[in-house]
Write a structure and sequence with these properties.
Elements (H helix, E strand, L loop, with lengths): L1 H22 L1 E5 L4 E5 L8 E6 L3 E8 L2 E5 L5 E5 L3 E2 L4 H18 L3 H112 L1
Antiparallel strand pairs: 1-4, 1-7, 2-3, 4-5, 5-6
Amino acid sequence: MKIIYWKLILIVAIVLLGAENLSARTVYVGERQEITQRTGPSTDHRVLKMLPTGARLTVLETNDGWLRVQGPDGTVGWVLQRFTSGELPSNLQLERLQQEYDQLRAASGGALDRVAELEASNTNLMDSLSEATSSLAALDEKYTTLAAEAANVIELKEQHDQAMQDLQQAEARIIRLSEENAELRSSEQLRWFLSGAGVVFGSWLFGFLMGRRRRRQPSSLRL
């Protein structure tokens, strides 16, 4: 029985709390500089205080266009419902967002700046990768061209080597022919020398013999 009793009490408490939460709602002072909070639901009642725009109010009761609210400092009074809004004024929302942004930025320890730097670095890396890809494509094309021309290079080298060999052989033949030509010219000069010497000797011998003959003829006549 005690267990059932306490369960019933718990259920009633939950229901009451839920009902209180359902009846209590939050409103904000609208887009005005200030509004009055009064002791009762009319302009004839005394002003308790001035509430600034954006002030958070907890609604306790409604009455013919008036709201009985509890202000930020706990003061309870009445305000005109038309001067309130269910949402925070836009200018205050912007200020709150800016404050939250500044707080997050400060709490991040420069993480946002680091993210921006990383994004910039990533962009630079992407540009470098694109340039490297282009360079690699150009190198591949050059390699393909060189590979295609490699056979021609080998053939040209073989032709060059054969031409050098032919040139060396030609030079050897020229040297041999030059030596043979020199020998021929030497032998020809000797032959001409000997021929000339023979002619001279023959002329001298002929002259000598004719001289002796002439010397003999007078002695014969004297006999």
